[in-house]
Amino acid sequence: MGAVMPDVLDAATALQRWGIATGVVCVTSADLLFQALQGKRGLSDAPSHGVLDALFLAARPAPIVTVLDGHPHALAFLSSVRGDPITCLGVRDHGQSADLHDSYIIHGIDRTSITGAALDLLDL
């Protein structure tokens, strides 16, 4: 998830240049966030530790674009924290070979695709 950060940050910078406020979070453990969500809902004994409230401020709902060099469904649960609209970008097909830059384009996790996904969520 951290490997795509340069493209994510480039997309955030492009959006900010157009006057669109953005926030970027590098998720280092999707599993721990999922466990926190389950604990918050009383579906497990896992503690939430307030991490979800810190990442997803109730007073600031916003569309979410998740980006990872893994399957896009891995972070889809994040939309259920506040009910935010979400687009999940990631690797859906396997077997392609390319350098890193071209691979990101092939899988739609490059700066242009990320920016486009955000604009689509905002209907811009």
Describe this structure in words.
It is a single chain. This protein is mainly alpha-helical. The chain contains five helices and two strands. It has helices spanning 5-17, 30-40, 51-55, 100-107, 111-121, and strands spanning 64-67, 86-89. Strands 1-2 form a two-stranded parallel sheet. The model has no long low-confidence stretch (mean pLDDT 91).
SSE-based structural type: mainly alpha
Order of the strands making up the biggest sheet: 1-2
Residue share in β-strands:
5-15%
CATH architecture name of the domain at 5-27 and 63-121: 3-Layer(aba) Sandwich
The coarse overall form would be: globular
Model regions low in confidence, pLDDT < 50 over at least 5 residues:
none
Number of strands: 2
* The CATH topology of the domain at 5-27 and 63-121: Rossmann fold
Q: Mean pLDDT, as a whole number?
A: 91
- Helical residue percent? 25-40%
User: How many angstroms separate the termini?
Assistant: 26 Å
Major β-sheet annotation: 2 strands, parallel
